[in-house]
UniProtKB/TrEMBL annotation:
Keywords: DNA-binding, Transcription, Transcription regulation
Bias (Low complexity): 163-196
A Pfam family hit: HTH_11
Region (Disordered): 163-211
InterPro entries: CBASS_pafABC_assoc_protein, DeoR_HTH, HTH_11, Tscrpt_reg_HTH_DeoR_CS, WCX_dom, WH-like_DNA-bd_sf, WH_DNA-bd_sf, WYL_dom
Protein name, per record: WYL domain-containing protein
Signal sequence interval, chain numbering: none
Top-level taxon: Bacteria
Native organism: Nonomuraea maheshkhaliensis
Segments forming domain HTH deoR-type: 4-59
């Protein structure tokens, strides 16, 4: 018979692998008597493991959730998977970086040498796509409360801070603000003409039915049905200040598009949830389609010959679309629309002026953004 300590670890490992274990089957797997199983279960209970007994023809034991976190037992694959996940947790923006580092240190200390070597030689650095946006950290308590509301299906109440009007357009424009969500407070602010706006009355808290909590580009978003506006909204978690208590329970709705990925992608790609970019154009490039398609995520690439292809792409502005097309080192033929051709002409003059060391003439107006 194995020693008591080894037997307890073996029993705990079995209890973690399935919900219900008949007592007779545990005794058989551990090669001990049912009476010894009962004694070992009592010892695990004294160590803080919430093990309950269930009755019936196959009466046995079940490991349930308790009020405190007891010591855990992981197999080799679970331990490696957990440490890798903790390394990646530093790039989530969820405000858990320090806790993840401490948890990783704790796990590494008790790892067998063979596993510690695997982890030390497997270092992961999470690199997000380049962005001009500042890093945003979200309070982990806010994320936990939002997630609890999603799972409990309870209406949430919170204050929502809009984007600063001086921040300029961003790829999040369709999500960060909608006509009634977005602007920062204008209390006491002066307009370009010098007159002062009247103070805006305090806004009532938002009342939403929370649906998925998602992350995109290093930021956290809550997708929710806005009760007062009777429409879908997507809120940045770092701009949410929760209020208590929560509201009544609700029945979840089906997301537009049918799933989370389709809905979120459409919101980031364009306005109105249609999935269309505000600015969309078509060009012909002097490159093989196979080469162009490797660098195009949301565009359509059509082969026209061994060294020619058609590219249909979208962006938030015509200059941005021109810049996206211009990254390909190839001859470019603009098919349309005229706004895209005009944007190419304006940027060509600007680039020529920059190459000659002079500024663009003041009478060359900036390209107009597409109507939103």
């Amino acid at each position: 018979m194995p020693k008591t300590s080894a037997r307890l670890l073996a029993l705990l490992s079995l209890l973690q692998t399935r919900r219900d274990w008949p007592g007779a089957l545990l005794a058989e797997r551990l090669d001990i008597s049912p009476r010894t199983v009962r004694r070992d279960v009592d010892r695990l209970r004294e160590l803080g493991y919430p093990i309950v007994a269930f009755k019936g023809p196959d009466g046995g034991y079940r490991l349930e959730a308790g009020t405190e976190l007891p010591p855990l037992l992981f197999d080799d694959e679970q331990a490696v998977a957990l440490t890798i996940a903790l390394q990646l947790a530093t790039g989530t923006g969820a405000g858990i970086e320090e806790a993840a580092a401490r948890a990783l240190h704790t796990i590494r200390q008790v790892m067998p040498a063979r596993l510690r070597h695997r982890i030390d030689t497997f270092q992961v650095t999470a690199v997000d796509r380049p962005t001009s946006r500042p890093d945003v950290q979200v309070d982990s308590g806010v994320l936990m409360t939002l997630d609890a509301g999603v799972h409990a299906r309870e209406v949430l109440r919170f204050d929502y801070a809009g984007a600063s009007p001086d921040a300029g357009p961003s790829p999040d424009a369709a999500i960060d603000a909608s006509p009634d969500d977005g602007a920062a407070s204008r209390d006491g602010a002066a307009s370009a003409g010098g007159e002062r706006f009247p103070p805006r009355p305090p806004r009532p808290p938002r009342r939403v039915q929370p649906h998925p909590l998602v992350t995109w580009g290093g930021r956290w978003y809550l997708i929710a049905w806005d009760v007062d506006r009777a429409d879908w909204r997507t809120f940045r978690a770092d701009r949410i200040t929760l209020r208590t208590p929560s509201g009544p329970r609700f029945t979840p709705r089906e997301l537009p598009g049918g799933d989370v990925a389709t809905y979120v992608t459409s919101k980031f790609r364009g306005s109105g949830g249609t999935g269309d970019w505000p600015c969309q154009g078509e060009v012909i490039l002097g490159l093989p389609a196979a080469e162009v398609s490797r660098y195009v995520r949301d565009g359509l690439v059509e082969e026209l010959g061994p060294d020619r292809c058609r590219l249909v792409m979208g962006s938030w502005s015509w200059p941005a679309l021109v810049a996206a097309v211009g990254r390909f080192d190839a001859d470019i033929e603009v098919v349309g629309p005229s706004e895209l051709r005009d944007a190419f002409a304006r940027l060509a003059r600007r680039y020529a002026g920059a190459a000659a060391g002079r500024n663009v003439p003041a009478d060359d107006p900036p390209p107009a953004r597409a109507a939103r």
